[in-house]
Specification:
Elements: H1 24-31, E1 38-44, E2 47-52, E3 59-64, E4 74-76
């Protein structure tokens, strides 16, 4: 199972993208979403990982999915 199974939405500010930025209107939009539909792309010592939830340390960007996650999951990016 990977993030695609949870149906990432397109970024409404940049429709060609699925990832949301970590600042400005995109961050405001992410923060308004239910926690269990937010995923964070993180840099873990040079390795990119996607993890469930809203994180601020080592974040690269965010994804929002149509379907919620229900437990801690981490996937290679």
């Amino acid at each position: 199972m990977d993030i695609e199974d949870f149906k990432p939405i397109n970024n409404k500010f940049r429709p060609e993208e699925q990832m949301f930025e970590t600042f400005g209107k995109e961050l405001e939009f992410v923060r308004d979403q239910p926690e269990n539909k937010i995923w964070t792309l993180m840099d873990d010592d040079g390795n990119l990982v996607i993890t469930t939830g809203f994180h601020t340390v080592n974040r690269v960007g965010y994804y929002i999915t149509e379907l919620p996650w229900d437990r801690e999951m981490t996937f290679p990016a």
